[in-house]
Amino acid sequence: MARAAGGLGRPGLRAGPRSSAVGVTALAVVPIAFLVLFFAWPVVAILRLGFADGGVAKALAEAQTWQLAAFTVAQAAASTAVAVLLGFPVAFLLARVRLRGTALVRTFVLVPFVLPTVVVGLAFRALWPGGGVATIVLANAFFNVAVVARTVGGLWAHLDRRAEDAARSLGASPWRAFRGVTLPALAPAVASAAAVVFLFCATSFGVVLMLGGSRYRTLETEIYLRTVNLLDLSGAAALSLVQLAAVLAALAVGALARRRRETAVRLRSKAETARRPEGREWWVVGVAFGVLALLLVPIVALVLRSVSSRDGWSLAGYRALAGSGENGTLSVTGWDAALNSLRTASDATVLALVIGVLAAGTLVALRRSPGRGARATGEAMDAALMLPLGVSAVTVGFGYLITLGELPGDLRTSPLLVPFAQALVIIPLVVRMVLPVLRSVDERLRQAAATLGASPARVWREIDLPLAARSLAAAAAFGYVVALGEFGATSFLARPDAPTLPVAIGALVSRPGELNSQMAYAACTLLMLVTALVATLIERLRAPQAQVGEF
């Protein structure tokens, strides 16, 4: 005991309050600096520009602004409703059903969520060449069925089903037991998923641009058109403010619902709650597989369209990737654009992992720090880290064009600008995937290592990181595929001589010519295949802790 006490008293073995605060501050410096420089500053610049010369007042007085806002909200609400309706039976299948192949279903459901927007836009264009509101709604719902299925299913799988069984034993029908017992318990997860889906649909860019054309425009696409085509920076900034208000409202609803969901979870293993379907449950399983079949239709349509031409089956689009399109549509070849995408996504993923891991470590340290002030700071930082996920990528890209020219060297011409923008989108995903695992690490392991003389940095390196390795690998794969398909901010920032593949696809689609169209569909199919492979890798790497409340 004397030796142990002496050991504990040696300097550096147990961090005091002051050294702990210094360590937390050191961890937080890099993520906070990155957020300030590459998120807060551009967004504040948009706010200032929007208020300059009465731009906001002028935009708010225009009937077109409210028409755009109304259509944005309406299509997002309709898409959310469709995604919730389609996602519920799939959530039941993932959470409550014990059948072979559910792991494959979980992987398949993830694929639409991580597909690039240009891929989904072209897939639905292959089905309905005319586009329209219904096509936009279905495409957005296609993206987000996974959010509903996995968020609701993540809670549903851990709910104690004995209350529902008790209601059934007292004479309640399956529907009444579900409506009176299970659905109220799932309400926080449903609200959280709906808020996230609404957020994604309200800021949808590639899908609306591909399928809406000039007839149907949202705030997101109007900001892009006013900036690129009309050079109306003040008007675009004013519309960004209107959109930002809607985004913040959706984020607030999602945060409140997520907090309620976390308090509602009863950590029971899926082995206790899942079982082989009985009676009418088979109907729900059948509906779930019907939804999965519907999700497969656009994917099949895309593949078939990539190998067809006016004269029949053809691989001309794939061969054309070695060129620059019909009449020199692109300034580089299709394969060069693909290599640019791979390099940019790699840089963005490495950057996002470094910043995301530091941010997650800071949040864990703040949560374990004594006092309400540290925890309140952690909650505020957690909310700030999630903001880039909700704020329009087009708005952020627009802000970069306004602000980053003021820095030494003018970063607007730097090849690192696109990775910075893409990393901003990936960081929240990294934090959300790594943070639950870091929080679940037994504090006694850290204390034992500290007692044996390990510094806080060594504890972090040898205890936390190895235990979180699988989640880190999954976060890297997830972030990589998201960066690979990012289109909103990249369409602003990519240089003409170094487009990414999604930007090249957008250019090919906007120009006439059958070869351009074939080349675009071929490139989309290759992106989809890469995405499917990465989604499979993510499912194999995800830690068990990440299954509660998936997104």
From TrEMBL:
Chief localisation class: membrane
CDD domains cross-referenced by the UniProt entry: TM_PBP2
InterPro entries named in the record: MetI-like, MetI-like_sf
Annotated ranges, domain ABC transmembrane type-1: 69-252, 338-539
Signal peptide: none
Membrane-topology annotation of the record: Multi-pass membrane protein
A Pfam family recorded for this sequence: BPD_transp_1
Name the record gives this protein: Iron ABC transporter permease
Origin species: Prauserella flavalba
